[in-house]
Amino acid sequence: MNKFQILVVEDDIPVCNLITTTLKAHEYRYLTAATGEAAVMEAASHNPDIILLDLGLPDVDGVEVIRRIRSWSNVPIIVISARSEDTDKIDALDAGADDYLTKPFSVEELLARLRVTQRRLALMQNTETKQAVYQNGQLRIDYAVGCAFLGQEELKLTPREYKLLCLLAQNTGKVLTHRFILQNVWGSSLENDIGTLRVFMTTLRKKLESGNDAAQYIQTHIGVGYRMQKID
Ligand code: CA
User: Fold this and answer.
1) How many whole angstroms from 114 Cα to the centroid of ligand 1?
2) Which of 54, 112, 181, 187 is most enclosed, with most CB atoms within 10 A?
3) How far, in Å, from the CA of 16 to the mean position of ligand 1?
4) pLDDT for 56-72, tens place per residue?
5) How far is the CA of 64 from the centre of ligand 1 (A)?
6) The 3-state secondary structure of the chain, one letter per residue
């Protein structure tokens, strides 16, 4: 039996059945809730390892459910949204969700998102004691010195690129929205700054992804933001 317990919050019965059948087949333990109120209660009383949360619920708005759960818990939350709810998805990520699935999604996508989240959980447990050095694949950040390296080579980063890299590293596995990155690196979230962010990201990636392992560290989520991936 997989030791991970998943709370599935979904009011659409066929979608809920698809998810729970998949979870059962892959030996995950699970709980279900069909409303926002029930979701908050189940989360509080059973302490699940991961929450799969549909954003369109009949009672409480999914984003509000995230805010309530985040007031006491860091449990990874993967939101499930319809394509028409793109802005809700971004609000959900800003409210503290970790990742998202867009309906309709395949069983493979669902399992892939769960694996990413399980890796993120493992990482969170390892970094609870704040480490002075970040290591991911060939990328190493020495926070005390304020330098980043790719293998033995020091990366020549501007202060802003370094800040951007640290923010992504500290949230490895989590999708960060444009708004969140702009607020944390530039101190503003003006819509037209997304262009500036894109330019910085292109330069940073060029420096970061030039190593001989050709690893892709930063994943682009079009219209949403970016994620630092854990490299095996
Ligand atoms: Ca729904």
Assistant:
1) 20
2) 54
3) 10
4) 999 999 999 999 999 99
5) 14
6) CCCCEEEEECCCHHHHHHHHHHHHHCCCEEEEECCHHHHHHHHHHHCCCEEEEECCCCCCCHHHHHHHHHCCCCCCEEEEEEHHHHHHHHHHHHCCCCEEEEECCCHHHHHHHHHHHHHHHHHHHHCCCCCCEEEECCEEEECCCCEEEECCEECCCCHHHHHHHHHHHHCCCCEEEHHHHHHHHHCCCCCCHHHHHHHHHHHHHHHHCCCCCCCCCEEEECCCEEEECCCC
Q: For residue 59, how far is its CA from the centre of ligand 1 (angstroms)? A: 10
Residue-wise pLDDT for 69-93, tens only, equals 999 999 999 999 987 777 889 999 9
Distance 34 CA to ligand 1 centre (A): 9
Q: How far is the CA of 174 from the centre of ligand 1 (A)?
A: 23
Report how far ligand 1's centroid is from the alpha carbon of 189 (Å): 30
pLDDT at 138 over 80: yes
Judge whether residue 46 has pLDDT over 60: yes
Distance 12 CA to ligand 1 centre (A): 5
Give the model confidence (pLDDT) of 160-185 as tens digits.
999 999 999 999 999 999 999 998 99
Query: Which pLDDT value is given to residue 64?
Result: 95
Predicted TM-score (pTM) of the model is 0.82
111 CA from centroid of ligand 1 (Å):
20
